[in-house]
Amino acid sequence: MNRRHLFGAAAALLATLGLAGCKDDTAPAKQEAAAEAKTYQWKMVTTWPKNYPGLGTGAERLAERVKTMSNGRLTIKVYAAGELVPALEVFDSVSRGTAEIGHGAAYYWKGKVASAQFFTAVPFGLSTPEMNAWLTHGGGQALWDEAYAPFGVKPLAAGNSGMQMGGWYNKEINSLDDLKGLKIRMPGLGGEVLNRLGATTVNLPGGEVFTALQTGVIDATDWVSPYNDLAFGLHKAAKYYYYPGWQEPQAVIELLINQKAYDSLPADLQAILTEAARAATQDMLDDYVYNNALALDELKKQGTLLKRFPDEVLAAMRDESEKVLGELAAQSDLNGRIWASMQAFQAQVTPMHQLTEKELYNWR
Amino acid sequence: MNRRHLFGAAAALLATLGLAGCKDDTAPAKQEAAAEAKTYQWKMVTTWPKNYPGLGTGAERLAERVKTMSNGRLTIKVYAAGELVPALEVFDSVSRGTAEIGHGAAYYWKGKVASAQFFTAVPFGLSTPEMNAWLTHGGGQALWDEAYAPFGVKPLAAGNSGMQMGGWYNKEINSLDDLKGLKIRMPGLGGEVLNRLGATTVNLPGGEVFTALQTGVIDATDWVSPYNDLAFGLHKAAKYYYYPGWQEPQAVIELLINQKAYDSLPADLQAILTEAARAATQDMLDDYVYNNALALDELKKQGTLLKRFPDEVLAAMRDESEKVLGELAAQSDLNGRIWASMQAFQAQVTPMHQLTEKELYNWR
Q1: Which of B273, B222, B279, B281 lies closest to B252, judged by CA?
Q2: Identity of the residue in A2, A282, A358 whose CB atom sits nearest the CB atom of B281
Q3: Are A355 and B165 a contacting pair at CB < 8 A?
Q4: Quick check: A349 contacting B, CB < 8 Å?
């Protein structure tokens, strides 16, 4: 018997007995009690296949923890991509309120919110700890809120994949010329950079990537990092695994919350949801650090050849990235303010990481 | 009027009216309700001065968020070092149950729990994301639990300072010889390493460090990183700010929970406390990434000279660190298992970070 029932019983009883003398004492309490006792059953639509390693499983853990922390007052049923809505309709679904909450990545919504592209990953941009700190201390969250507000959606960081890999290639990249004419599956800003360097990028849904790579319809594809790429079997369709993941030095996984639904929650459930998202940022990174390491070992065992993009190629990618981002920033006042804020933050935090993380990883 | 009062009123009413027919329906509900309505006022003792940047303020935010998430059912009053117990008695205080919860760093308890030294920072050891992943996925948490279990204390990671700096020096370190005879304030494993390299380390309480450095009683001191060091004024007592912080490539800030007090909480409050700690790990790192960057700028403005330990010196520090850690590992079966687990984890995760974070920070 849960609180709602108890309060129901108690209230009904008091009412039935018509104990007028008690009403003044208990009426406000009953109201408060009703608010506290109210339960919320939310639907979470996601951009991930069922039980997708790291990303989908992270969403499931977040929902489970919210349920436990709220003692069942806020339950979130997680739907894989396509179960309620297709992956790319998650933002609209949350905006309309069809689902109260969504789990995905901001750059999927670039067709609807051009500014969204800044909030997942920027080529040669902020590292994982820097991106998290920009959102919470550098003004990033306020800009993200501003970008989604017209759609009645509140965004929260709820995970990070950490730095990704450069992608799977069936042709070696020894110079800039080797990119020319290459057919590469790469969406977003990274894809635009490769186009400008002479490649032809295509955007294929996940389900078609493996076959396209195996049959030679594409010569290369980006994906995520060993944890996801191994599960996806890409090592069976490509010879070379290129690094570094210049296009995604980190990738924020986001929680999309319908603003009206969020506002309808009592303060404790709002806090539980917000802290669960913050905890999930840590939780998902732990998952990737560990499982990427195991998967990298397995890929090596299965014969994957690791290759590094030549400095000449990385330098050209970096120059083009700056141009592409500059043009995106010029598209709107908001884009301009977001990019200026990110660049200023990167300039601010880089010197400290030169003295610390850079030194540490160079000892290894 | 809170739930407890309401249930009191309702129960009293039902009882008074002697509605026997209702008793069977409401008795279990009343019991559950009583459990849910129970509030817990906890005391948190900490090793930090009042409002200590990053560490003390992080403890305050954690307590505030637990209060909000629990709708006031679990309130935690935070006490600075010395308010209830001295900093170094925090562990004992939580173990005895004088305080239900504590906030500090594991290596402060090395006199009582030799294994504790592994759970804050290890020279030349795991990075911040690696340490967090070792605790949650690499078996670290279970070993930490085992180390504290005899004292009835449950440890949780609840913050991280990120990588620290090498310390403040009034003499330049251009070769190993320059360390010989130097008086350095450095506790823990790092201090032991410096002793073996010919320095004489002393452990001074924070309050005495500044004067000792200014008056030449010591030639150098470690502290934390710009955020804390600037606030502490160390730049006014030393010329050179050395990097990298080889002795603390990261530093876990811990929550100590009295096991009996933890077990007395209902499942939802246990989950709120656990997730609040996980979220605090992210929250504190964000705070350090941002404020270290600002403080580093300010230190440069005030004339602090940044110096890097020569490779020859770092190499010797690294060799001695391995010996010191090997000896600590040999002291007990548990120490041996902890160190073997950490070393295996570092070997497992390092190759992936060579392809990712190392590349990223070298672009900068």
Answers
A1: B281
A2: A282
A3: yes
A4: yes
- ipTM field: 0.90
- Structure confidence by residue, pLDDT tens digits, B164-175: 999 999 999 999
Work out the angle at residue A124's Cα, subtended by the Cα atoms of residues A123 and A130, and round it to the nearest 5 degrees: 105
Out of B129, B306, B358, closest to residue A162 by CB: B129
Cβ-Cβ contacts under 8 Å for A142 (sequence gap 6 or more): none
pTM of the model: 0.91
In three-state form (DSSP H/G/I as H, E/B as E, the rest C), the secondary structure along B168-180 is EECCCCCCHHHHC
Q: Collect the ranges in chain A with pLDDT lower than 70.
A: 1-36
**CA dihedral over B86, B88, B92, B97, signed as positive or negative:** positive
Chain A: closest CA distance from residue B290 (Å): 6
Query: B330 vs chain A: nearest CA distance in angstroms?
Result: 25
Size of interface A-B (CB pairs under 8 A): 254
Q: How far apart are CA B104 and CA B102, in angstroms?
A: 7
Which one, of B142, B116, B118, B148, lies nearest residue B131 by Cα?
B118
Q: Give the integer Cα–Cα distance in Å for A119 and A135.
A: 9
3-state secondary structure of A318: helix
Closest CA relative to residue A162, chosen from A209, A101, A226, A106: A226
Task: Match 């969204």 to its residue by tokens.
Answer: A116
For residue A243, what is the enclosing H or E element?
strand A240-243
Closest partner residue to A138 (CB to CB) among B13, B133, B290 is B290
Record: contact A287-B137, CB cut-off 8 A: yes
Q: Which CATH architecture has domain B39-160+250-290?
A: 3-Layer(aba) Sandwich (3.40)
Q: What is the pLDDT, as a whole number, of residue A3?
A: 40
Determine the 3-state secondary structure of A137 from DSSP: helix
Beta strands across the sheet bearing A167-169: A200-202, A183-185, A220-221, A167-169, A240-243, A305-308
Distance from CA of A82 to the nearest CA of B (A): 30
Question: What torsion do the CA atoms of B233, B237, B241, B247 make, to the nearest 10 degrees?
Answer: -80
Strand residue runs (E) in B191-251: 200-202, 220-221, 240-243
Give the A window 236-295 contacts with B, CB below 8 Å. Answer: 243-245, 249, 266-268, 271-272, 275-276, 278-279, 281-283, 285-287, 289-294
Contact A169, A310 (CB under 8 A): no
Cα–Cα dist B43/B93, whole Å = 10
Residue A288 three-state SS: helix
Structure tokens at A129: 């700890």
Tell whether B316 lies on the interface with A, counting CB pairs under 8 A.
no
Q: Are strands B101-104 and B40-46 parallel, antiparallel or unpaired?
A: parallel
Q: Tens of pLDDT along B44-101? A: 999 999 999 999 999 999 999 999 999 999 999 999 999 999 999 999 999 999 999 9
Shortest CA gap B84–chain A (Å): 29
Query: Which residue, among A270, A242, A47, A277, has the nearest Cα to A156 in the 3D structure?
Result: A277
Give the strands of the sheet with B101-104, arranged side by side.
B74-79, B40-46, B101-104, B252-258, B153-160
Nearest residue to B63 via CA among B78, B82, B81: B78
